Amino acid sequence: MVPFKKIVICGVGLIGGSLALALRKNGYKGRIVGLERNREILSRAYALGIVDDAGSPMDETFRGADLLVLSVPVAQTGNVLKMVMPYLSAEMVVTDTGSTKTDVIAVAREVLAEKIDRFVPAHPIAGREMNGPDAAVDDLFTGKKTVITALSENRKDDIEKIAGLWEQCGSIIHYLSPDDHDNVFATVSHMPHLLAYGLVDYVANHAKSDLFFQYAASGFRDFTRIASSSPEMWRDITLANRAHLLTEMDAYLEELKNMRDLVEKADGPELEKIYANARRARMNWLNTIENSESKK
Amino acid sequence: MVPFKKIVICGVGLIGGSLALALRKNGYKGRIVGLERNREILSRAYALGIVDDAGSPMDETFRGADLLVLSVPVAQTGNVLKMVMPYLSAEMVVTDTGSTKTDVIAVAREVLAEKIDRFVPAHPIAGREMNGPDAAVDDLFTGKKTVITALSENRKDDIEKIAGLWEQCGSIIHYLSPDDHDNVFATVSHMPHLLAYGLVDYVANHAKSDLFFQYAASGFRDFTRIASSSPEMWRDITLANRAHLLTEMDAYLEELKNMRDLVEKADGPELEKIYANARRARMNWLNTIENSESKK
C-alpha cells in the first residue's frame, strides 16, 4: 500500500506521468494532483487521465497533500523548491526523480534549510527517448531499479515511505551514496548520451552527410537511440554531473586514443583482445543482470 | 527468378546461411552447396537445412556450379580465392558479402588476375550481433539495401545477375564506388562498433566495474548492442578499412574533445545546440529513411 493520501507531482512528463499511471494501475486510491509551468502540458496530462486535478491555485493544490514529487529537469530543482516552500506542511515528504543527485541535494539543502530532513532523494532507473505526458506508460518502472540516496537527516520512516511508493510501481529499491550514484550514471548513462549526440552531430555536419545517413542501418539506429532524448534535460544532466563526467570522459578518450593508435599500427591481436573482452563482459552482464531483471 | 542453377556458398554463418534460407523461401529451386573450413559449422548448416550438400570433395562441390558467394571474414578472401581458383569454370560468377570493398577488390585482383572480370563485389547491409548458422534467418535482407561496387571489368550481364540474386531475397540494390562505400561504412558502422567495444572494455576494466554494470540499463544496452558482434570479424573489418576509419575517428575525436571542453566550461547553450542538432538530424533520418525502409 502506498503510504500517502494525496500526491502532488510537479512535472507530469514521461517520468512524473508514468509514476501517476503506475500508482493507479497498482491500486493507489488517493488523489494525484499535477503541477506544471506549462499549462498545455498540464491540460494534456489531465485529458490523458494522468492527474485528477490540474491548474488549481497553489494553496488548493497542496491542501492535505502528504507527498511532493519533483519530476522536472534537475536544473529547475531550486526554483521549484523556492516556489513551493510556503506550501510545505509539517507532515509532507518531498522526493525527486532526478538523474543526478549531488547537485540536487546541494540546492535542496540551500532552499529547504532546516526542512532538509523531509527531502528523500530518489532516481528511478527507467526511461524512453520520448518525453511529455503522451510518452507516459503505466509499466515504465516494472522490474526496474529505483536508487534512493538517503540523507543522514532523513527520518527512517520517510525513507521507507518513498521505498514503498516505488515498490508499489513494481520497482526494486537500491541504496547508494549520492557520489557513487553520480559516478555510476556518469559512466553507464550520461557519457553514452554525450557520445551518441556527438556522433549524430558529427555525421549531420559532415560534407557527405546525405550519403552517410542514406546507408546508416540498425547498428547506427541502436547506438544513437539515446540521441533522440530531450536536449534540454540532457544539457542539465551534463552540467549537473560535470565533475564525474569529465573524469570518465578523459579516461574513455584515453582508451579511444589507444585504440586509434592500434588501428594505425594495424595491431590486429590487440584490437581483437579488446573486442573479445568487451563481448565477454557484455554477455556476462546480459546474462547475470540485464536479462534476469527484464524477466521480473 | 534467380539466374543460377547451382550456388556454392563459402561460409555458411549468419550472412551466407541467411542468403541460402532467403533464396529457398523466395522460390529458388537450384542447388545450394556449402563450403567451410570448420566441419562442425558445415554439419550444423546441413542439419538446419541451409545447404543441400556439405563436405563433398572440392571438384564435386564445384561441378556444374555457376555462382560462388564468398561470405567469410574479409581477411580470408585471398586464401579462399587461392583455394578455389582451380575449380572456377569459365561461366562461373563470383561475388562476396564483405563489409569492406577496397581491400577485398585489391586481393581479388591479385589472386584472380585475368579472371577479375567475373568478380562482382557486393555488400548486403544487414546483420545481427549473433553469428554462425544458428543465427541465420530467411528474412534478414528483406527491405534492406545491398550495395554493389561493380568493377570496370565486370560484364553488365554478371552485374545484373548479382543484382537479381539479392532482389530475389527482398533486398534493394544500390551502386557505390568502392571508396565511397568504405568511407560511408567507416562512419556509420565501423566506427560505432569500435566505440561500443571501447566503452564496454572501459567499463569492464574499471575499478568500479561491478558497481557500474549493476546499474547499466536500457540506454547502455542499446548503445553497446554491437559490442556483442564477432571480435574476429570486426578485427578484420577494422584493419581492412583502416584508412577511412582513422580519418573519421580523428575527426570524431576532435568533436568529442570539443564537447569535453564545453562540459568543463559548463557551456550549457553550446552543448544544448549540439544535442538539439543531433536530435533533429536523427529524427529526420528516422522519418525519411530508416522507418520508411523498415516498412517495406
UniProtKB/TrEMBL annotation, chains A, B:
Full protein name: Prephenate dehydrogenase/arogenate dehydrogenase family protein
Phylogenetic placement of the source organism: Bacteria, Pseudomonadati, Pseudomonadota, Betaproteobacteria, Burkholderiales
Superkingdom as given in the UniProt entry: Bacteria
Stretch forming the signal peptide: none
UniProt entry tagged with the keyword Cytoplasm: no
Listed Gene3D superfamilies: 6-phosphogluconate dehydrogenase C-terminal like domain, NAD(P)-binding Rossmann-like Domain
PROSITE patterns per the UniProt record, alphabetical: PDH_ADH
Pfam families tied to this protein: PDH_C, PDH_N
Alphabetized UniProt keyword annotations: Oxidoreductase
Domain Prephenate/arogenate dehydrogenase residues, every copy: 5-293
